[in-house]
What we know:
The protein has helices at 23-26, 47-54, 73-81, 92-101, 106-129, 136-141, 143-153, 160-170, 177-200, 206-213, 222-252, 255-263, 267-281, 313-316, 351-368; strands at residues 30-32, 42-44, 59-60, 134-135, 288-292, 296-298, 301-303, 308-311, 373-374, 396-398. The radius of gyration is 21 Å and the shape is globular. The mean pLDDT is 92. By secondary structure, the protein is of the alpha+beta class. The longest helix is centred in the middle third of the chain and has 31 residues, at 222-252.
Amino acid sequence: MPEAIPAFPMARAARCPFDPSPQLREVGPISRVRIWDGSTPWLVTDYDVQRAVLADQRFSADSSKPGYPAQTEAILVQREKAKSFISMDDPEHDKQRRMLTRNFTVKRMEEMRPRVQQIVDGLVDDMLAGPQPVDLVTAFALPVPSLVICDLLGVPYSVHDFFQARSTKLVTRNTTTDEAIKAGDELKAYLLELVAAKEEQPADDMIGRLVTDQLPAGELTREEIAAMAVLMLSAGHETTANMIALGTLALLRNPAQLAEIRDTDDPKVIANAVEELLRYLNITTGGRRRVATEDIEVTGQFVRAGEGIILANEAGNRAESQFPEPDRLDIHRQARHHIAFGYGVHQCLGQPLARMELQVVYSTLYRRIPTLELAIPFEDVPFKHGNFVYGVHSLPVTW
C-alpha cells in the first residue's frame, strides 16, 4: 500500500506550544503533503534547501499562477482581488518594493526609535496606573505596533479598531471566502478614501509620499497604493503584536533569561535576544509558498513546472545543523541567520521596523515592571491554533 500523504498544516507539539509539529521531523527534506483543496504540493523542511528555493526565481511567488498552493480559498480570492507586491515576481515585484524601501531603512528606523520608546513608555504607564490583572495583548501588545504602523503610514489611530477587526479576519483559517472578501473590500475602500484625501492635502508619511511621488507619474494607481497600505497595516501589526505577547510568555517560562534581558543595559544583548525569539517562536505558520515555473531538481527530487512547493520555516528555524539544541531558547545564541523573515528577493521589507520595535519593547517592559508574572496558570493560556500568525488570544498578567 502506498504511504498516506499527510495533511498540512500540521498541529503543533502538545508537550510545548512553542514548538512546531513533531511531524515536520518525521518527513523527509522534501515530500508531498495534502492541503485544504485536495492538492498535493511539495513540503520542504530542510534549512539549506529552503534558502536555495527562496533564492531561485524559477520558483514563482505569483499566487495567480496555476498550481500555486494558496493557504485557503479565502486568501486566494482576496489576493486576486487586491494583489500586492509580495504576490508578484520581478520585475514588477522589485519595482513596487523599491518605492517603499526608503520607509524601512535602518537609518529611518533609528530616527523612529525615540517615538516608539515614547509609545511603549506611555502604554506601560497606563498599565501601572490601572487595575490588575491586565490583558497584555489588548493593553500593550496590540497598541504598540498599531500606533507605530499608523504613524508610519499616515493612518489615523482612531480607526485602529476598524483595521484590527478586519485584518484579524484575513489571518484566521476558519474565515469564509465571503468574510475575507468583505473584510478586504472594506479595508481597501477606506484606504482609497485616505489616498484621495492625501491627494487634496499632501502629507509627509508613507501613503502621502506614494501619492505625491508615484501617482502623478503613473507608476502606481490609487488601487495599488491602497493594496500596499492594506499589506503594511496587516503585516505591520499582526506579526509584531503576537511576537510581543508570545515572546513575553516564552520569557516568563524561562525566568533566568528574562532576568538577563531585564537587567542588561547592553543593546547588543537585547538585539541578540530578539533574533533568538524570532527563530524560536516561528509565529508565521503555514510556510512560504511558491510554484515551479519549469522542471527543477530539488535535493534529488524533480519538481515539475506547475507544481506547488511549501517551505516550512518553523522546521528550518529548528534545524540542528544550524542551531544546536534547537528546541532550547538561548538568548546568547547567534541566530541572526534564521529565516523568520524569509530569504531572497521576497525577504520581509519591514524587518528593520519589527526588530527595532521588539528591541524597544523587550528592553523596556520587564525593566519597568520587574515582577511581571502570569495571572492565570500557563495551561489556561489560549493559544491561536487557528490563525496564520501564531500567538495568544489573551495574556492576563499581574505584578
